[in-house]
User: What shape does this take?
Amino acid sequence: MAITDWPAAERPREKLIALGAEALSDAELLAIFLRVGVVGKSAVDLARDLLSQFGSLNGIFAASESELSQVHGIGSSKYVQLQAIFEMSRRALNEQFLQRDIFQSPQQVRDYLVLRLGALTREVFLVMFLDAQNRLNATEELFSGTLTQTSVYPREVIKRALHHNAAGVIFAHNHPSGVAQQSLADKLLTKQLKQALALVDVRVLDHFIVAGNQTLSFVERGLL
Assistant: This one.
């Protein structure tokens, strides 16, 4: 059955107008983006197929053009549009951090980090550089490695912190394994970086581990 044949209150577009975007499921939001389905499938059915195949919205955003094009009804134009939406979302969150204390909305920090790191298949170490008012100066992915190990050099972190005139930093790295749990190596690295940055009067404000849509905060765990 086509979406146009559904009761008005159940159609994604009408539902969004009536209740707001937050009331829609991932499949319904994706269906609005897709606009149309394929023969035998509505846009919502196609959206569910995409979510099933790639696991989540982040998985869809992280998929390559060739991977997405293997799904019937999805071509290069949809891939380009998805990447544009993804980048706009990241930049919108980034702009909000530039204008106010980043800790006014800790959930936005988590959302931003999930967007940046959640779907990556390689391990990446990211640093957010903050000014004295905890506003974001810059974000950089400083190191990347294999799925199981990343080499992080304190000298380079200090160099970039001084370059951005940072008063504080937030670390984040992903666990492609999907487990948001700190390892002994994670704890030792955080301690080493905290000690090194203290020598140049830069505070380590938190360290997040991102695994898919999950995040772990060292501060909340009492590890920092």
Notes: The mean pLDDT is 85. The CA atoms of residues 91 and 100 lie 15 Å apart. The longest strand covers residues 136-144.
